[in-house]
Amino acid sequence: MLDIKFVRKNPELVAKNIENRGAAQDLDDFLKLEQQRRELTQRVQDLKTRRNQASQEVALAKREGRDPAPAMEGLSELSDKIKELDGELKGLDRQVHEWLLSVPNIPAQDVPVGSDEDDNQVVRTRGEKPVMDFQPREHWDLGVELGGLDFEHAAKMTGSRFVMYVGWGARLERALINFMLDVQTGEHGYMETMPPMIVNRDSMTATGQLPKFADDLFKLENWEDYLIPTAEVPLTNIHRGEILQEDQLPLAYTAFTGCFRSEAGSHGKDTKGIIRQNQFNKVELVRFAHPEDSFEQLELLLGHAEEILKRLGLHYRVVNLCTGDLGFGAAKTYDIEVWLPGQGRYREISSCSNFTDFQARRGDIRFKPAQEKKSRLVHTLNGSGLAVGRALVAIMENCQQKDGSIVIPEALRPYMGGMDIIRKQ
RNA sequence: GGAGAGGUGGCCGAGUCGGCUGAAGGCGCUCGCCUGCUAAGCGAGUAAGGGCUUAACCGUCCUUCGAGGGUUCAAAUCCCUCCCUCUCCGCCA
Fold this sequence. Notes:
Elements lengths: L3 H6 L1 H10 L6 H37 L11 H27 L19 E6 L12 H7 L3 E2 H7 L6 E2 L2 H19 L4 E3 L4 E3 H7 L17 E3 L4 H5 L6 E3 L5 E10 L18 E11 L4 H19 L3 E5 L11 E9 L4 E10 L3 H6 L2 E3 L7 E2 L1 E9 H11 L7 E2 L13 E2 L3
Parallel strand pairs: 4-8, 7-13
Antiparallel strand pairs: 1-10, 2-3, 5-6, 8-9, 9-15, 10-11, 11-12, 12-15, 13-14, 16-17
Helix pairs in contact: 3-4, 5-12, 7-12
The structure holds one RNA strand.
């Protein structure tokens, strides 16, 4: 959510941003509404001042044993008027707030301008594509043949876009989770958590999934709660409505959770394999940062995610998302794209974003500067560290051998009971 | 699911018959004083958000005592609904 004062002072910038982001809000209507709201606020406040003063006199008269009736003259009407205008004001407040909730964040200065993913800027490339003297196979092909991925039974018990990991598949998924958590907690200083995977409406609103993206979420029937699409939601909401101490920043949390996405609107995309599932596992990183250094914190966070890929020996590149590809609440986002030989292209395996004060304002997450009277909004950041299923895909496709076996990366072997190669089971 | 208790400021905790209670008292914290270290002691300050005003400080007004609604000139205090927490019993991973 943008600062209402910022919107008022920078109308042309906000209007341009709304247009660039393909949003549909009308700024002029909003500014009119906001003007009305401010005028009415002032009027109601004045009336309340009068009412409060009069009430004091009634109290005083009673205490001194005088007749309070004269002081009460006309107060009933005044109160009715206040009640009426208060109701009107509440309506305006709600409209103003709802408008603000549906406006995207302003991109950072160094975000490339562009319309879609083709305009994203490659920041760096790390590692090498594996050399293969054979036609690399896709992960679903290998996974099913080697017995680690079972789509048929998952489809029977649930439906499409679900998978059951079996044997080495399940073990490798678990190994990745433990490996990632160990690195992020042990070496990068994140506090490990296991948050709820069901959250309420306020939490979803704070991080920006609601109200605009309800279609992407699974909502529980007869409950006002939702399955989380990412642990970003519970983790960022840890400090919702709180005022932190300045010296607590930055705060860093990590969590392994399931993630649940309806994938509405992506019919026909990635229908094979486990790239796009309605349920997947992810180790998430969330940071609460001081506004002064949140962009340095983003680089740090990005490095924490990259480290996992480096240790797994996977080739990847980092891209700076352009304005057209940037998510709703993000001011700046780096995607990490891992090379998939089977598909012959790079695929997103992590997305690291600085939301500046966008989520903090929605969720009222602040800190108290040591030298100032007023509290300030923190900046929130998050990134995958990493998407576990996609890491599994990357390993399968990058470490496959001509005979169809898969060599397990060194870093994971301790987590695999010493196993170094996956063969048909 | 059954029975009961409660939700007040960073924390604990008062709030009488509704009316100078935005909220006593304590703890914590900040600043100052005192003390040859430490501890103790003394004094002052210490909720958040918003409006007006100011260069800023100050000042002033409005809102907020779990949420929403109602009664009233006036509600932390009375009434209704909801949410949450805790205790006991039952059931269960």
